Amino acid sequence: MAERRREEAVQANRDKLRDYVFTAVACFAWCAVGTFLIAWSAHTTDEALGRMAFWGGLGVGNTGIIYTLLAAYRRGEKRGDW
């Protein structure tokens, strides 16, 4: 019985680590998309398009990261991590 519990604990920790890595990669991706849009806004010659890209980059980057972290929290709650 103790061996089974140890195996379950190892599997649970593995699942938790996999979810943390996925969350970190997703946050990095959102940050990269937001940074790309902000950088692109600095290089465009159309002022209106530049403003849209700048604010879109801020919105996409921040909203994507927040959504990803909240989803990770919900998954952790469902798993019983906290």
Question: What does this entry look like structurally?
Answer:
The protein has 82 residues and is mainly α. The chain contains two helices and no strands. It has one domain. It has helices spanning 2-43, 47-79. It starts with a helix and ends with a helix.
Main features:
91% helix, rod-shaped, mainly alpha, 82 residues
In short:
This protein is mainly alpha-helical and 82 residues long. Helices cover 91% and strands 0% of the residues. It has one domain.
Task: Please specify the SSE layout and strand pairing.
Elements: H1 2-43, H2 47-79
Helix pairs in contact: 1-2
Tell me the β content: under 5%
Separate helix tally: 2
Cα Rg: 19 Å
Question: How many β-strand runs?
Answer: 0
**How many domains comprise the coordinates?**
1
The largest sheet is: none
* Terminal Cα span: 25 Å
Structural class: mainly alpha
Low-confidence stretches: none
